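Hey team,

Filing this mostly as a record. A colleague (T.K.) asked me to run one chain through the structure pipeline before their review meeting, and I want the input and output archived in the tracker in case anyone asks later how it was produced. No errors, nothing strange. Just documentation.

Input sequence:
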Amino acid sequence: MRDQRRVVLLCFAWAAGCGGTAPVRVAAPVAVPEGTVRYIVGGDSRNDAANVLPWAFGEAKARGAEAFFFLGDMELSPGYDDRFVKALGALDPVQFYPALGNHEVMVFGFLPIGHDRAEHNFRARFLEKSRTPIKSSIPGKVVYSVDLPGGMHFIALDNVSQAGFGDDQLVWLAADLENARHSAAVKHIVAGMHKPLARNGVTTHSMDGDGAQAVADSDAALAVLASAHTELILASHVHEFANFTQSGIASYITGGLGAPLTASGPDHAFHHFLQLDVTDQGIGVVVVRFPGKPSLEGDSADDDPTPG
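Output structure:
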């Protein structure tokens, strides 16, 4: 029986988007404990030469995840995002909730060409689908919240369409959190975004780098998240793992889904995703490391000059 449970699942990489055609082996099914709802979260899969993303999608299914939270930077440039759409077939029937990354709305992640069209195309590809049954709450941005099993209220914020969040998004966030706090169905509030909030003490490759207004917006968002007793803040953008606390909120940087790793030491620079196990008592966070060979900065010939 144990051998049967250890049957290996295969998830095949797509040649153009994941760097090869070799099959990627993922673990045997992992049971979800009774009374627990499981979610998977990660970001930054562009230039995925190591085939981390198909491994993570296969693991999400094998581990019984309810949904996959993706924190941005699917492909090197918006024009390649159709490859990611095809890859999503390996995730079905797990639901998929993305946040917008800078590589979704800027060519190579830093050339601001055609933002409005890129953002529109992103919504058309990924939102209001059976696997992502939501739409953006603010025109011109990817901003939404969704109530999920286990009492999870997940909020996706957009800090790449402009410097900071913008007044409209901050007003929306405050109203959304007020509603969530007064909902008997909501037990846990989790916020996801691409860039880490400013003044996090770990990295300035975050909203710190977008100017004084972005830092002020970050401070305002953090204040309202803290007042609503938000449980987790999740971000990517930096190609590594880190965990820290901001205003009493457990915070994670999880940019390890295949993008070339930031060379910041073995405690941080590794491909991975986070597993969130949600119970009535709280959210347990498990770091799941990729078992294959890592992809480091400089490994990919078409890597862009920015690390995010």
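Quick notes for T.K.: Residues 1-24, 299-307 have pLDDT under 50 and may be disordered. The helical segments are 2-5, 15-18, 52-62, 81-87, 102-105, 115-126, 167-181, 212-227.
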